[in-house]
């Protein structure tokens, strides 16, 4: 299961690095600002479609995400 808080924090960090406000990201992705806020604050896990839209806009390489980091797994054998 995806750790929504960690994923939201990663998205928020990348958005801020791009100097985008939530409303600007909302316009670019056609997702509501409230939905983006909920994702960033760990209240919702984005759908795959929403995650791809967000990743493209904030230059987040989804291949670079460590699934163990997102899932909150500390030690993987």
From TrEMBL:
Coiled coil stretches, renumbered: none
Pfam families with a match to the protein in the record: HTH_3
Gene3D superfamilies to which the protein is assigned, alphabetical: lambda repressor-like DNA-binding domains
Ranges for domain HTH cro/C1-type: 11-65
Transmembrane regions: none
Keywords in alphabetical order: DNA-binding
SUPFAM superfamilies listed in its UniProt record: lambda repressor-like DNA-binding domains
Database matches in InterPro entries: Cro/C1-type_HTH, Lambda_DNA-bd_dom_sf, TransReg_Diox_bact_type
PANTHER family: HTH-TYPE TRANSCRIPTIONAL REGULATOR (PTHR46797), METHYLPHOSPHONATE SYNTHASE (PTHR46797:SF1)
Protein name: Helix-turn-helix domain-containing protein
């Amino acid at each position: 299961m995806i750790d929504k808080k960690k994923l939201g924090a990663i998205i928020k960090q990348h958005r801020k690095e791009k100097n985008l406000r939530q409303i600007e990201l909302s316009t670019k992705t056609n997702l509501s600002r409230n939905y983006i806020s909920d994702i960033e604050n760990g209240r919702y896990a984005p759908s795959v479609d929403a995650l791809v839209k967000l990743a493209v806009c904030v230059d987040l390489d989804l291949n670079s995400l460590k699934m163990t980091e997102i899932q909150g797994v500390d030690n993987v054998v």
